[in-house]
User: Fold this.
Amino acid sequence: MTGPGDAGSPRARRRPRARRGEGGRLYEEILDAAETLLDTSGESAVTIRAVARRVGVSNPAVYLHFADRSALLSTVCLRVWDRLDAYMADAGSTATDPATDFKNRCVAYIRFGLDHPLRYRLVASGPATQATAQVADSCFRSLRHAVRRAVTEDGVPDSEVTALTRAVCACLHGAVSLLLLQPASAWPDDLDRYADDVASLATSGALHRAGRRPAASA
Assistant:
């Protein structure tokens, strides 16, 4: 199986044959190689042949772990969503109050998308599967939990929390996509300020909509 990015690529090193019990390590190496190809050359560069060449194994060795290219890309998507979820959780863990936790997670979402544009583009508009949809839903639930904690004192109903979370997600996704549609030369010079401004507007708007006045330093 060939694809863009394969032609003219150098012959890869031969990886020593995996010993019994080392299949898990090869699985991770395959995913690492796929992510590297994605980051450097985009989705079209992620082919079974290119990944096998980069790891130093035969094509059949990759097929032992992934039925086809779609299965490989689906698993890469799962990894991206998992890391985004963890990235937001880490950002929220430093907060001293629920409103700041909410905002920090929003900042983290935007920065993750801008720091990993090709990965974000893959999960936002690439091959969607039931598995990746489930992980994306998990990400949504995580952010929804942050919204719930930020407005919990006001007795906001669950349906309103869900609606607010959808609106916030639209703001965050729009903020990332707006820049990804432009050349990097057109991006703001201060991406931290950009992420903070958007997150501040999104979180303040959600809190205001829920009838809660956000703290000035949030």
Q: What stands out?
A: The chain is about 65% helix and 0% strand. The CA atoms of residues 31 and 75 lie 8 Å apart. The radius of gyration is 20 Å. The chain has two domains: 1-66, 74-209.
